[in-house]
Structure prediction request, 117 residues.
Amino acid sequence: MMNKNDVVAVIMGGPSAEREISLVTGAAIAGALREKGYNVAEIDLEPKKLALQLEECNAKVVFNAVHGMYGEDGRLQTLLEMLEIILVQVCLQVRWAWIKRHLNASCRPQVLLLLNR
Prediction:
C-alpha cells in the first residue's frame, strides 16, 4: 500500500526523437501529482544511470512519461519489474505505442476510432 509520503518518480526525456514532448508530459504529470500532495522526484532518463537514480530517490512507484525508445518498447518496464518498483502508465499511451509499433500508417486512423468508442 502506498501513501503520499512515498516517492513517485516521474521518468521523462530519454534519448529518442520524442524527448522534448516527453519532458513536457513529465513536467505536467509531476505538477499534477504535487498538487494532489504526492512526494515527486522528476528523473530525466539516462538509461545507464536509471537504476541508481531510482535507488537514490527511494522511488516506490514510477510514472512513465517517456515517449519512444525505452518508454514504449518494454525496456523501462522490464527494468522496473526486476527492481520490483510499481509502474503506472497511461492506458492510452500504451495503446498508441502498440498501434505505432504494429500497424502501418494507413490502418491507424480506423483503429483509433475503434479505441475511442
